[in-house]
Amino acid sequence: MMESPCLCLRWSPRRTAPGTQPPASGSVRAWRCACARWRRRTAPSAGSSAWPRAEPQPIAEAITPRPTPWRRALETARTFGLASWQATAPSVGSSRSWRNARRNPLHFHLIADSIAEQILATLFQTWMVPAVRVDFYNADELKSEVSWIPNKHYSGIYGLMKLVLTKTLPANLERVIVLDTDITFATDIAELWAVFHKFKGQQVLGLVENQSDWYLGNLWKNHRPWPALGRGYNTGVILLLLDKLRKMKWEQMWRLTAERELMGMLSTSLADQDIFNAVIKQNPFLVYQLPCFWNVQLSDHTRSEQCYRDVSDLKVIHWNSPKKLRVKNKHVEFFRNLYLTFLEYDGNLLRRELFGCPSEADVNSENLQKQLSELDEDDLCYEFRRERFTVHRTHLYFLHYEYEPAADSTDVTLVAQLSMDRLQMLEAICKHWEGPISLALYLSDAEAQQFLRYAQGSEVLMSRHNVGYHIVYKEGQFYPVNLLRNVAMKHISTPYMFLSDIDFLPMYGLYEYLRKSVIQLDLANTKKAMIVPAFETLRYRLSFPKSKAELLSMLDMGTLFTFRYHVWTKGHAPTNFAKWRTATTPYRVEWEADFEPYVVVRRDCPEYDRRFVGFGWNKVAHIMELDVQEYEFIVLPNAYMIHMPHAPSFDITKFRSNKQYRICLKTLKEEFQQDMSRRYGFAALKYLTAENNS
């Protein structure tokens, strides 16, 4: 009977601005099936919210539990990853490829700074991939271990952290697989794990020979590389026997070697790879040479064709050129298509259970199953109720984000949500609103890549680093509008937020006007919701009014209308547009049934109720909760926003055409009001009365 390893790896997704390094582009669904280590390219200044780019490198380690009756040996491979908060998106394609081929549990150890941990933890928790565990380690605590080494490589200080794994990883971890995140797996990583059994004697490092002439020193005149054994070895894929390395005093070995070589070389050119090769040059017995197909390198001066020309069963493709997918190689189109296949792969499919290999029960999954089991599947509104418990994969900060809130504590973030059919609104909103923006985008995996290409091709979007794009991946039949709003609200860094919709353009200068209003109305110390009056146009081409006077003129001419006055008057009637026309100071209005204005509130306001999906009552319920919590509604006299025309959404079409949809919405409204009564008691009774009278 053959030994059947059960691999537990820990993935480290990357959080970098997708696009600069193609295989890194895309969303962060990619998991490093061995340990992912992140290399930070730039470091944010103290207290800053900059997200430097990073290039993770995975590491895996194994433990051998007692044999079970049905399996002679069960090996658990634990992977270790390193990530800065911009190193999430790029790992998508590679990590997907690793997980797609796996038939074993994965266990990840990730080194990450605090922001990267937030992003990666959210990704893992919302993906809910069975048989995957994650542990985090603070990257900032490790910087001093390698910061003394000058490094010219774009990976920066993170590119050196592979050297300190024997100190960083728990002492009981015996072996690890280290993988750069710019790789694509074409096989089950358990096959690579099995190679550990081929190590003999003092072999502690498993490496593939470098597939370029870099270390031969003949690439250009006066090229002087670090010392290496022949062509040297590439450290994009490493098998490490940690227990033996510790006994050999690896820490002392690499430090002495680095200190000696730096006296003449002054800095590393290829980060950790230079130091690994210098150590191997002096101690060749440390290496077990892996077959070339475990690290087919597509660098600028690659000789890898000599490998895949002879080996049809490629295992790992490594995009180790700074150009990534744009590297020049006569077979690059084949490899690129392979990578893109994984990139647009439906990540929900990776949630499938692994049969025949036991793993620890996941508490979150068990709780979710318990909640779902309590629902009545014969209920005609079952699908609506089920959506409330659906866990959507979420990739925070999909693109580069960097913003430091204003020091005067008046800053306001515009919050909105959208799907692919509203993408064209982004540039216009960015032109109208210069302040920070938090957006939740509801996309499929393929659409996320389309959005990436769209954003990269837009000068307007690429010039804005204060827009946080948070991808919530599609699942289920309803548009989870309030979940999206909550995701966008939760990830703002300013004290106030403007709760808007993507199809509205704010007036020019609204950002600064709101900041002044925050001070004028003392929002910091009072519970107020500042209302921005909403208008609409039926014209796709509009000469946007640059002042209130111009807007009033357009209202009188019939070019503009108060929002939804001809369809849903109750939604905005309490704003009192007649009073607004002549108002010069803020004025208070009272809540009325079905009121749903667009408001500016403190960031600690209640979340939206997730039971409302698709069309209907999603904002109404939120405004009702603000009212029951005694928020004052204050209309701003010199603020306005204009709704731009678009085709009806799929959800409003369902609402209008499907009687059962409307029945279920009515049922959810009644249940929401009952919940309000239970939570707020007497204060909530007026909403039942108002509903009955409306």
Automatic annotation (TrEMBL):
GO molecular function: glucuronosyltransferase activity; manganese ion binding; UDP-xylosyltransferase activity
GO cellular component, one term: Golgi membrane
InterPro entries, A to Z: Glyco_trans_8, Nucleotide-diphossugar_trans, Xyl/GlcA_transferase
Pathway of action: Protein modification; protein glycosylation
GO biological process terms held by the UniProt record: protein O-linked glycosylation via mannose
Membrane topology: Single-pass type II membrane protein
Catalytic activity, as annotated: 3-O-[beta-D-GlcA-(1->3)-beta-D-Xyl-(1->4)-Rib-ol-P-Rib-ol-P-3-beta-D-GalNAc-(1->3)-beta-D-GlcNAc-(1->4)-(O-6-P-alpha-D-Man)]-Thr-[protein] + UDP-alpha-D-xylose = 3-O-[alpha-D-Xyl-(1->3)-beta-D-GlcA-(1->4)-beta-D-Xyl-(1->4)-Rib-ol-P-Rib-ol-P-3-beta-D-GalNAc-(1->3)-beta-D-GlcNAc-(1->4)-(O-6-P-alpha-D-Man)]-Thr-[protein] + UDP + H(+); 3-O-{beta-D-GlcA-(1->[3)-alpha-D-Xyl-(1->3)-beta-D-GlcA-(1->](n)-4)-beta-D-Xyl-(1->4)-Rib-ol-P-Rib-ol-P-3-beta-D-GalNAc-(1->3)-beta-D-GlcNAc-(1->4)-O-6-P-alpha-D-Man}-L-Thr-[protein] + UDP-alpha-D-xylose = 3-O-{(1->[3)-alpha-D-Xyl-(1->3)-beta-D-GlcA-(1->](n+1)-4)-beta-D-Xyl-(1->4)-Rib-ol-P-Rib-ol-P-3-beta-D-GalNAc-(1->3)-beta-D-GlcNAc-(1->4)-O-6-P-alpha-D-Man}-L-Thr-[protein] + UDP + H(+); 3-O-{(1->[3)-alpha-D-Xyl-(1->3)-beta-D-GlcA-(1->](n)-4)-beta-D-Xyl-(1->4)-Rib-ol-P-Rib-ol-P-3-beta-D-GalNAc-(1->3)-beta-D-GlcNAc-(1->4)-O-6-P-alpha-D-Man}-L-Thr-[protein] + UDP-alpha-D-glucuronate = 3-O-{beta-D-GlcA-(1->[3)-alpha-D-Xyl-(1->3)-beta-D-GlcA-(1->](n)-4)-beta-D-Xyl-(1->4)-Rib-ol-P-Rib-ol-P-3-beta-D-GalNAc-(1->3)-beta-D-GlcNAc-(1->4)-O-6-P-alpha-D-Man}-L-Thr-[protein] + UDP + H(+)
Keywords: Glycoprotein, Glycosyltransferase, Golgi apparatus, Membrane, Multifunctional enzyme, Signal-anchor, Transferase, Transmembrane, Transmembrane helix
Highest taxon, organism lineage: Eukaryota
Name the UniProt record assigns to this protein: LARGE xylosyl- and glucuronyltransferase 1
Organism: Papio anubis
